Give the backbone structure.
Amino acid sequence: MNDTYEAPTKPDLTLYASEISVADEVELVLKMIGMEEYNKAGRLSISIFQYMTINTALPLTENSLSVSIVAYHPHLEQFAQTLRTLAFACGALRTVRPGIALHVYLVDNGGLPGAESAFEPLHAGNIEYSVISGYGNVGYGRGHNLAIDATQSRFHLVLNPDIDLAPEALTIALQWLESDERTGLLTPHIADEAGHQQFLCRRLPTVFDLFARGFLPGSIRKLFAKRLDHYELRDAIDDKNVFWDPPIVSGCFMLYHTDVLKQLGGFDPRYFLYFEDYDLSLRTHDIARVAYVPTVRVLHHGGDAARKGFTHIKLFITSAIRFFNRFGWRWL
């Protein structure tokens, strides 16, 4: 079976909204964004006006950055903290890049209504934003793809709603991307809440690596510490030196040249949750270089799937099977 993902081709939209029925309008727009299968399950509704408003939110400009955050019943205090640190980093960026166009896409996969108070830092920072809603929970990758498809920025940041950015993070990151045209994707130094480095750049996993890291008790996992350290690139990555072309990087912060991201077609939407960043990382190496730049700093509040209950474990396993089907099964 050929498991290669190709981004959907959009048909031209030549009809005015007044000339078609609401049902036809929904179906046409869903075909445009490759989501008609979701609509068959009765999960989506959208208007052409809504889609076209989203699609033209950010004008094409060389001096521009867009950010997408997909939220599903976010922890409101943590989500607000992410937006506060993002707004602060955008403010710092403006001091060295006057006139930079900034736009944040907040993708509502569920539970975002009622979180409007968290948007206040964006208002206070005079940062344009769009709330993309009405689709239901379409998954992490599909959610980001809505923003990726809409934006016309020079740079695009895929960001988790549980990330705190250092004030200078965006300034340093964009300086790097402009100074080295080889870099299509930048990944930062990621720390946990205690300030310890999270080694989220990875080598290609085996089935055993994923099982040992995610599901073995700590006392048993210690027996495989050297092996897991190798998987997590602890022998190659530190908090000081740039590391080129880690095979896999974390989807919690992926800063792209937007043209590279669009050429890749964004995330493969067949991953509902988990492994979509593994897949996108590996495909990125086909057309651009990837740089781990530790002077770009963020803090990550996230946890692993095994601690989030059975549903997340099931999603993890389902996506792992898809990943190995595509990139080859490696057991031990």
User: Anything to note?
Assistant: The chain has 13 helices and nine strands. The chain has a mean pLDDT of 84. The first strand starts at residue 64 and ends at 71. Strands lie at 64-71, 101-108, 128-132, 155-159, 163-165, 183-191, 243-244, 253-257, 289-300.
